[in-house]
């Protein structure tokens, strides 16, 4: 009698193998179907959280690879229709938000980052399926943060804007902490 194969696990492993193909070479870290944002090294997290076109293509490699669409070269060569490109960009930007919220979590600026315990490949799949629902999940600013009194007076979308305005400062502080004194 043959072995029982966990089809979901197999699909996750295949998506991880294809999605993380370029990440393995770029970051010199191990990534697999169970890798979570909180498992990333500080150096990798800082790179992913930093702005820049090349950084964005690293996300495209992950998103496209995990979905079996190849790598970001297809995106650059305009080998995809506009609808597919927009979907890839939406997923990449949603994932970038999650990475930046993880930076804020490590700094102690937010209580918990949404999806922090979810494998990265599953986050990609959720973002690809969930659309705006995935992007609306936001962390709560930590009560110890100096701007917390202003934050609690806000509601709904204003809190989202408030949190996102903190991102450049968070990424800068995270980088400064890594650089040391």
Task: Write up this protein.
Helix 1 runs antiparallel to helix 4 (about 55-65) and helix 6 crosses helix 10 (about 155-180). This protein is mainly alpha-helical and about 180 residues long. The protein starts with 6 loop residues before the first helix and ends with a helix. It has helices at about 5-20, 20-25, 40-50, 55-65, 70-75, 80-105, 120-130, 130-135, 150, 155-180. The mean pLDDT is about 85.
In a nutshell, what does this entry contain?
With 181 residues, the protein is mainly α. The chain has helices spanning 7-19, 21-27, 42-49, 53-66, 72-76, 82-107, 120-130, 132-136, 148-152, 156-179.
Write the layout of secondary structure elements.
Elements: H1 7-19, H2 21-27, H3 42-49, H4 53-66, H5 72-76, H6 82-107, H7 120-130, H8 132-136, H9 148-152, H10 156-179
